[in-house]
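User: Before I run my own analysis I want an independent prediction to cross-check against. Here's the chain; please return only the structure tokens and, at the end, one sentence I can use as a sanity check.
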Amino acid sequence: MANKKQNVEPTMDLKDDEEFKTLSNTQKTAIIMMVLGEEEAANVISHLPPREVQHLGAAMVSVANVSQGAVDLVLDEFVLTMKQQTNLSMGTSDYVQRVLTKALGEDKAASVLNRIIPTRASRGLDILNWMDSRSIAEMIRGEHPQIISIIVSFLEHELAADVLHFLPEELRPEIIMRVAQLETIQPEALEELETIMQKQFSSNSAVKSSNVGGVTQAAKIMNFTKSEMETQIMGNLMERDEDLTGRIQDNMFVFDNLEGVDARSIQVLIRNIETDLLMVALKGADDLVKDKFLENMSKRAGELFLDDMEAKGPMRISEVEEAQKDILRTARRLSDAGEMMLGGGADFV
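Assistant: Structure tokens:
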């Protein structure tokens, strides 16, 4: 019996370890949420922003069949992490506010704090991030383009791109142009926006001016648009304002920028996208980008990948561009979740 036990346990441990290594940080968090129980998990989730709730909820579904051994490893890692924490790294909200204000300035710090400390997000506009894109578009489509652009600027970038999809095609370039030209919004304008939103919900208005929009914001929204929509909007913008269009493009994170991403982040990205999708995307990519992905595969996996990609034959440019866009959207979500770092190009974080 002793020999039999010795033959079985190492195999099971190895299997659990391999399963543990395949889990993303979001999935590990999901496991901890499920271990906490319904009441405690609900309390934690109530403090998360809308997109993080969606990602965490999807992860909780995906880990339903994880082995007990892998769960134990997740808990061990969590306990170890907590033991390494000190009072210095567990600051209160006031401490975090003071540090961020000193580091970023009052306006930028307020913007960050509104996202990481939910109780600070008092504007009714923040509730829009919990609504679906079609409903938001229907609500605002009758407003003046300047009002629409301000509202879009307050949305998370992926949601803003989806809202654009449901707005009239001829209106999209106008909205992006106005978003890019925005800098600050005064209290009076915020109060007017709150009045408009009162038909759907009520809330208190902020009492100080806020930084919204700008070229970077417009570029981030464009990063999440579909290829066809991007072409239409940017082409129209180029006819209106060539300089502004160029500045937006300079701030957009394109597929070739992935060449500058670190190896660990590329490995995370590979695990979170379909192999066929990556093959299509790399068909039209720079050799440096292709090499970046191949370097982060095993030699055998890389050889098989190249053979399968070659077997696909020629691809339409539109298919390649859409595949690249899909991968960039995944990269953005992983970046927002803290599972990978984007760099080596435009400011995409």
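Sanity check: The CA atoms of residues 20 and 30 lie 13 Å apart.
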